[in-house]
Design a protein that fits this description.
The radius of gyration is 14 Å and the shape is globular. It is built from seven helices and four strands, in the order βααβααβααβα. The protein has a single domain, classed as Alpha-Beta Plaits (2-Layer Sandwich). By secondary structure, it is of the alpha+beta class. The protein has a four-stranded antiparallel sheet with strand order 2-3-1-4.
Length: 139
């Protein structure tokens, strides 16, 4: 078993889609090991997305991620990172496969409902960003 981070983004939380997304993830075989509802400040969102700093979409991304509540969560399954990336679908919901989270729940490429870690290394770092060790369930 491995773990990854997902964040239900402000667009999906605000539209009342968080429960459906969470159910989709559980039905796909993920176990929720930690979860919280929070609002990111600009500094926190900027630090989380620092890898994108300097790119044309960075400021818009930080503004979007601070526009309302988000739900970061630690998910566990076999090959969690790859499995979650498959379940969420392409960044642009118009290009996402049928049945994926973004095809079902995203509004647009920029308002795409969910974040998912893209590697095991980033998953570990992103999980630590939101959850201390005692907040994460194991096994």
């Amino acid at each position: 078993m491995s773990q990854t981070l997902a964040i239900i983004k402000p667009d999906a939380v605000g539209a009342g889609k968080a429960g459906k997304i969470l159910a989709h993830l559980e039905n796909a075989g993920f176990a929720v090991k930690s979860l919280r509802l929070t609002v990111l400040g600009s500094a926190q969102a900027g630090a989380f997305y620092a890898v994108h700093e300097g790119r044309p979409f960075y400021d818009e991304l930080v503004e979007f991620m601070t526009s309302g509540p988000v739900i970061p969560m630690v998910l566990e399954s076999d090959d969690a990172v790859a499995k979650l990336r498959e379940e969420i679908g392409a960044t642009d919901p118009a290009e996402a496969a049928d049945g994926t989270i973004r095809k079902l729940f995203a509004e647009s490429k920029g308002r795409n409902a969910i974040h998912a870690s893209d590697s095991d290394e980033n998953a570990a770092s992103e999980i630590a960003f939101f959850f201390s060790g005692h907040e994460r369930l194991r096994g």
